[in-house]
Amino acid sequence: MTADESKRIARYGWAAFAILALAYFMVYLHRTTGGALSDTFEDYYGVGTTSVALLASSYLYAYTLMQIPSGIITDRFGPRKAASVFIALIALGSVLSAVSAYVDNFSLMVLGKFVIGLGAAVVFIPMVKVLALWFKRDQFATMNGVILLIGNIGAIAAATPMVLMVDLFGIGDTYMILAVITVAVACLCWLFVRDRPAERGLPEVDHEAEKKVGTMEALRTIFGGRMRFWPLALSMFFFFGTMMMWQASQAGSFYISVYGYDLHSSSIMVTLIGVGTIVGCPIGGLLSDKVIRSRKTVCLIGTGGYALAWAVMWATVGQDVASGMLFQGVLNFLFGFFSGFLVSTVAQVKEAFPASMSGLSVASLHTFTFIGGALAVATCGFVVAERTVGQYQTLCLIALVMAILAFLCEVVSVEVTPEDEAFTDPALDFLEYLTDKSE
């Protein structure tokens, strides 16, 4: 590869990445809107806490259902076609959400959220495929950190800015504006994103990534990965469950009910989760790729710090010392900061299997990630149905236990690097892996 070819690959790769990153901004915005607007939805539609939890979980159920299909679709049709079509589906869901406000029909809002979830599910996996095909392997965790950084800017926009936007335009017009923006992103994706360098007359960065593997063979390899897959899947199940329960559902109402914050003050707490993730994602990626150079170690730091933050939250619920915005702001920042280190989990799973399975291996991981999120969001509304301090303390204890379980799963996971023998034989089981290492 000549220097000129390398520069052109970088230029086209960054262009494709930037467009898909803009789409991922919209994904996170829709995913976390409920955290700051839960009370607004309750008042406008005349529904309760459980119904708003259903609204948030409908997105996550759709997202979960589409994870493995998204990997299959992306690996088969390429990032360009997959992302363009499903970004347009997000726009359709936004239109349904807007109409629900115009006709005052909460069920239509739930349907719109579900459709948005279906579309949003096929954005991240095409981005992973673009990273596999256009960027070098030692850039993956760092670039994944950039992806989540941009996504969490969307989460920040879903907090205070979204509250202000709804105050100014109303729910219906706000969602219609989002629909127009999303259609524009889908058009950009179709016009400028290309699946691989060869489509631009350039040499491939990773020829292994383009090898064709049958879907059933790939699924058998991934789900037969044992300690290289299952502990990470369970870790993300527990970890993301707490994040969605808090950021996308209960954080706003927690601060209003327990500490008497107003809507805008509570939305600032939700915003700080996104701010923390924006800081944590690139740091976690750099530590994983360039400094510590161990995916598992970075994951352990992230899940361990996250569990400690939840321990402090649980121990201080309802106490005067914890009522200040500075104290709570730091905690929410730390939730986001340590979640940013989980970019290394995606890299750890991706590197445990051939590059040709990159879309499906990450999609399989995310299936469990979003099952955890959907179940946690759906059930947390029942735990805090009456919004008492005791109920919120129980919710925080549940979150702490889930965070500890996420850490323990990371402890028993097996990290596979490109230098390991297991990297060339992804079907190798855990006992054989340990035997080879001991010899």
UniProtKB/TrEMBL annotation:
Family matches, as InterPro entries: MFS, MFS_dom, MFS_trans_sf, MFSD1
Major facilitator superfamily (MFS) profile domain: residues covered: 16-421
Keyword check for Membrane: yes
Annotated catalysed reactions: L-alpha-aminoacyl-L-arginine(out) = L-alpha-aminoacyl-L-arginine(in); L-arginyl-L-alpha-amino acid(out) = L-arginyl-L-alpha-amino acid(in); L-histidyl-glycine(out) = L-histidyl-glycine(in); L-lysyl-L-lysine(out) = L-lysyl-L-lysine(in)
Topology in membrane: Multi-pass membrane protein
Transport is among the record's keywords: yes
Transmembrane segments: 12-29, 44-62, 83-102, 114-135, 147-169, 175-193, 229-248, 268-287, 329-347, 359-384, 390-409
Signal sequence range: none
GO-annotated cellular components: lysosomal membrane
Entry keywords, A to Z: Lysosome, Membrane, Sugar transport, Transmembrane, Transmembrane helix, Transport
Highest taxon above the source species: Archaea
MF (Gene Ontology): transmembrane transporter activity
Intracellular or extracellular location(s): Lysosome membrane
Family named by the database record: Belongs to the major facilitator superfamily.
Subunit structure: Homodimer. Interacts with lysosomal protein GLMP (via lumenal domain); the interaction starts while both proteins are still in the endoplasmic reticulum and is required for stabilization of MFSD1 in lysosomes but has no direct effect on its targeting to lysosomes or transporter activity.
Role description: Lysosomal dipeptide uniporter that selectively exports lysine, arginine or histidine-containing dipeptides with a net positive charge from the lysosome lumen into the cytosol. Could play a role in a specific type of protein O-glycosylation indirectly regulating macrophages migration and tissue invasion. Also essential for liver homeostasis.
The name this protein goes by in its record: Lysosomal dipeptide transporter MFSD1
Record organism: Methanomethylophilus alvi (strain Mx1201)
